Amino acid sequence: MIGGPGSGADSLIDALGAVDAGTASGITQQFAPITSEALIAAAPDVLLMMTGGLDSIGGVEGLEKIPGIAQTPAGKESACRRHGGRGAAQLRPQHGSRPRRIGRRRLPAGNP
Fold this sequence. Notes:
Layout lengths: L1 E2 L5 H7 L5 H4 L6 E2 L3 H7 L4 E4 H6 L2 H5 L9 H4 L3 E4 L13 H8 L1 E2 L5
Parallel strand pairs: 3-4
Antiparallel strand pairs: 1-2, 4-5
């Protein structure tokens, strides 16, 4: 799935001063299924993942095995940021320190 406008991720990404690759690639729904080709075309620089979701696929190593991830700028740099919580509401920047904490939480491959 990829997040688009109104997903919660978009407002967090905006608070980080970045561009939401999902919205920029033309996604119009809060969340939409995505193909490998569409993921590659979206070309995210960083993948923002919920901790539970990342853990469920085997961490960063599992993420990198998903078709299309390795062909994105984020995949090439193992640029993944995880965020605690399990739902999209947890992505919303409820507090000024949350975007700063998430912005610093880059995970190298093999260190989920």
